[in-house]
Write a structure and sequence with these properties.
It is a single chain. The chain is α/β, with parallel strands linked by helices and 467 residues long. It has three domains: 234 residues, Ribonuclease Z/Hydroxyacylglutathione hydrolase-like (Metallo-beta-lactamase, Chain A, 4-Layer Sandwich); 108 residues, Rhodanese-like domain (Oxidized Rhodanese, domain 1); 107 residues, Rhodanese-like domain (Oxidized Rhodanese, domain 1). The protein contains 17 helices and 24 strands. The chain has a six-stranded mixed beta sheet, covered by helices on one side. α3 crosses α5. It is globular and about 70 Å long. It starts with a strand and ends with a strand.
């Protein structure tokens, strides 16, 4: 038996390759399926099953393309109603894979169709569980992401309580837990940075597996839930209803456009221009009206949070070796309408005599010298980060909701923008400039840099005050 975790940091998502005696199963594959095909070919195996733990909300799965390319059977747990050919397994049903068995455990709670796959090895021993969003390391899946559920999040949390105690916790301590996500995913609240553990360790350390009443569990799991990213329910619908092949999306998205073609594509389609280059390059010169979302950070989740229509036509700037990666990452979260990239990048744009904008930046020490509470300082970190520590007088405008918050600001005023380290603030500043704010200044180094200024920031329990 061979098991491999395929972890994608950008989405904090784990897919799995399980193989026995020439047959393989893929659990929760990402949109681009070639890595799984390559892995099976390398091992001389045939992909027999695509196992889906639930209808994912935070990414578009590769189940349809993978099944089409391999003839594999897509498998869901009980109550799933996919809009395509798939096997909806019964609770407790055994799937044979080479010399091992995979048992389907219906574990509703995160969603009603959520299921866990239990691998039973060649000797008949319970070996590992693939829990999707039912059980994470240190946490459990949030109960408010089900598609068109008639159940409240409290109802779903109650189902999750039962699933964990009746299906997961009775398993032996030595069973290995392979979760669907790790730290950084919005599918849970308190996930560990580790991605593999034993069930015994989780029984000791995971708050959700401790001895408590159903009422206490429901209260704890539903506490402090922030609104999910707007693209989550839309991705869940795609996973349930179907989508366009990744091959067609790539063919269309990696089209090289010269400056004239690029401008025509923008004008004809009212396309959004996304600049995916490193932020250090973006601030020195960018196409007016473009927004920055750098590929070298958590690109896909920020695209999903900030672009409200999955069908938005998109053209982009990218480093030459990152073009295909940009299209793939867009498609991972359901943005399938990339129409090409600017051939030659910003240098070609400049050479054609086109207008270029820049973003003014200020170092922390320079800002500290001019700081006063009258300055318009925008902190675009999450509310929880802001409440933990912030500069006195700052306005909290979390990047996740910035489109809705900008109308309350004055486009004629000067604004200084910061986040924790600099990535989110450049995104925010680019959006502000697109919306007509002309005096926007990005604070280099973010909050971390401000705390290290020579003038110093005195740290109090709930705020940071400039001396």
């Amino acid at each position: 038996m061979k098991i491999e975790q395929i972890y994608t940091q950008c989405l904090a998502e784990a897919a799995y390759y399980i193989e026995s005696n020439g047959e393989a199963a893929i659990v929760d594959p990402l949109r681009e399926v070639q890595p799984y095909l390559d892995l099976a070919q390398k091992n001389g195996a045939k992909i027999k099953y695509v196992l889906e733990t639930h209808f994912h909300a935070d990414f578009v799965s590769g189940h349809l393309d993978l099944a089409a390319k391999t003839g594999a059977t897509i498998v869901y747990g009980p109550t799933a109603k996919p809009n395509f050919e798939a096997k909806v397994a019964e609770d407790g049903e055994l799937l044979t894979l080479g010399n091992i068995n995979i048992k389907v455990l219906h574990t509703p709670g995160h969603t009603m169709e959520s299921s866990t796959f239990l691998v039973i090895d060649e000797e008949g021993n319970d070996h590992s569980i693939y829990t999707g969003d039912t059980l994470f390391l240190g946490d459990v899946g949030r109960p408010d992401l089900a598609v068109k559920s008639d159940l409240s999040r409290e109802d779903l949390a109650g189902h999750l309580f039962d699933s964990l105690r009746n299906k997961i916790m009775p398993l032996a301590d030595e069973v290995i837990v392979y979760p669907g996500h790790g730290q950084g995913s919005a599918c849970g609240k308190n996930m560990s940075s580790e991605t593999v553990d034993t069930l015994g360790n989780q029984k000791q350390s995971n708050y959700a597996l401790q001895d408590m009443t159903r009422e206490a569990f429901v209260a704890e799991v539903t506490k402090d839930l922030v609104a999910p990213p707007q693209y989550f329910p839309k991705n869940a619908v795609l996973n349930k209803m179907g989508y366009e092949s990744i091959d067609d999306i790539l063919e269309r998205g990696i089209m090289a456009l010269d400056v004239k073609e690029f401008k025509q594509t923008v004008d004809k389609n009212q396309a959004l221009i996304i600049d995916t280059r490193p932020k250090e390059q973006f601030v020195e010169g960018f196409i007016p009206g473009s927004i920055f979302i750098g590929i070298d950070d958590t690109f896909a989740p920020w695209v999903g949070a900030l672009i409200t229509d999955l069908k938005t036509p998109i053209v982009f700037l990218a480093e030459e070796d990152k073009v295909e990666e940009v299209v793939i990452r867009l498609s991972r979260v359901g943005y399938d309408n990339a129409l090409g990239f600017l051939k030659g990048g910003i240098e070609a744009w400049k050479a054609a005599g086109e207008e270029v904008d820049t973003l003014r930046q200020l170092r922390p020490n320079a800002f500290a010298l001019m700081y006063s509470e009258d300055i318009n300082l925008l902190d675009v970190r999450k509310e929880s980060e802001f409440n933990s520590q912030h500069i006195e007088g700052a306005l909290n405008k979390p990047l996740d909701f910035i489109w809705d918050m900008l109308p309350a600001l004055d486009t004629d005023k000067e604004y200084f923008v910061h986040c924790a380290g600099g990535y989110r603030s450049v995104i925010a500043a680019s959006i502000m400039k697109k919306r007509g704010f002309k005096q926007v200044v990005n604070l280099l180094g973010g909050f971390k840099g401000l705390k290290e200024t020579s003038l110093g920031l005195t740290d109090f329990e709930e705020q940071v005050t400039m001396l």
